[in-house]
């Protein structure tokens, strides 16, 4: 992407997100309509909202093991498989943070691999909750995600009290995975300035609910 991306260029890497647990079908339909109006890449919703009525030009992402990540790997795999069967194009799974915090990266890799096997044709993004982890843990989890066949590593759920995306975490994740995987910045990105900082740091996808406000701050 150029150093000064346009509104349409940024929209094309946005997952327009609605993950509030109280979201109604009407609210989800409104988010889909807004995503189409704004030209975002996808919508990201809870799997219980599927199937969605949406144009074929708009991708559908759903979360898996959300938001805690403390689900059994088999449960995450089943959730991902069901979501794909119900129309999801992309799966954003949350890792088990306990594994990462205690250095059990083989367990991290195994649970990602289980979801990968359950949804082999979906784009798989791995939410690492970077604000909770040390730099070393971020690096090791990103390596585990790559070994397990993930397509993206993603900073945050946006629900953890430790915080969301940071420029430092995105830079570190990008250095770790190089050009081999995508990096999705998500959590706390609410204006154009922050979105551009994440892109400059190496983010190739943005997960945001404030898409309209972000895009309004960018040139045509």
Automatic annotation (TrEMBL):
GO molecular function, a single term: deoxyribose-phosphate aldolase activity
Function: Catalyzes a reversible aldol reaction between acetaldehyde and D-glyceraldehyde 3-phosphate to generate 2-deoxy-D-ribose 5-phosphate.
Subcellular location, record wording: Cytoplasm
Source species: Acidipropionibacterium acidipropionici
A Pfam family matched in the record: DeoC
Cellular component GO terms, alphabetical: cytoplasm
EC class: lyase
Active site location: 92 (proton donor/acceptor), 154 (schiff-base intermediate with acetaldehyde), 184 (proton donor/acceptor)
Main location: cytoplasm
E.C. no: 4.1.2.4
This protein's pathway: Carbohydrate degradation; 2-deoxy-D-ribose 1-phosphate degradation; D-glyceraldehyde 3-phosphate and acetaldehyde from 2-deoxy-alpha-D-ribose 1-phosphate: step 2/2
Keywords: Cytoplasm, Lyase, Schiff base
InterPro entries on file: Aldolase_TIM, DeoC, DeoC/FbaB/LacD_aldolase, DeoC_typeI
UniProt record, GO biological process: 2-deoxyribose 1-phosphate catabolic process; carbohydrate catabolic process; deoxyribonucleotide catabolic process
Catalytic activity: 2-deoxy-D-ribose 5-phosphate = D-glyceraldehyde 3-phosphate + acetaldehyde
Family: Belongs to the DeoC/FbaB aldolase family. DeoC type 1 subfamily.
Protein name: Deoxyribose-phosphate aldolase
Lineage of the organism: Bacteria, Bacillati, Actinomycetota, Actinomycetes, Propionibacteriales
